[in-house]
Amino acid sequence: MKSKRRNYWMAAASLLLCVTTVVHVFLGGPEIHHVVQATDALPIEIRAISAVLWHAVTVVLLVLATGCLWLIGHPNPPLANVMIAVQLGFAGLFVFYGMARLQTLWIMPQWIIFLLIPAVMGLGMLRQGRAHASHRYDRAFPQ
């Protein structure tokens, strides 16, 4: 019986999600979140909701990174597809609001990472699919 192969594509996707989380928390925090929280121009309820949403994005990014780590050794196409769909949804939001409100995609370029990571995950799924098919072949035709 073959040992499980490491899926470096899923590992790379997890690393990209960890980097994205760090950028979100440490660069976006001072640039966006802290500014929103410090302004008295917004009602306290709006600032509270903004804080919840900010930290919810952090949680989602950490869950996605952890999910990719888990997928390295546990192929699960439905889970991977949901994770990809969430990120494509994020990319779509950045593209839509960038064009609709800002008339450019370059003020909020986060859509790039949310297209790149699902592409890397897709490569990981292909690799897992080939490894799974190879394992089935080996079981059907032992040598």
Radius of gyration over all CA atoms, rounded:
19 Å
Total helix count? 4
Q: Percent of residues in helical segments?
A: over 70%
Please provide the ordered H/E string of secondary-structure elements. Answer: HHHH
Q: How widely separated are the two ends? A: 11 Å
The oligomeric state is single chain
Q: What can you see in these coordinates?
A:
This protein is mainly α and 143 residues long. Helix content is 83%, strand content 0%. It is built from four helices and no strands. Helix 1 (8-38) runs antiparallel to helix 2, helix 1 runs antiparallel to helix 4 (110-140) and helix 3 (77-102) runs antiparallel to helix 4 (110-140). The longest helix has 31 residues, at 8-38. The chain is elongated and about 70 Å long. The termini are close together.
How are the SSEs placed, and which strands pair?
Elements: H1 8-38, H2 44-73, H3 77-102, H4 110-140
Helix pairs in contact: 1-2, 1-4, 3-4
Short recap of the structure:
With 143 residues, the protein is mostly helical. It has four helices and no strands.
Features of this protein?
mainly alpha; 83% helix
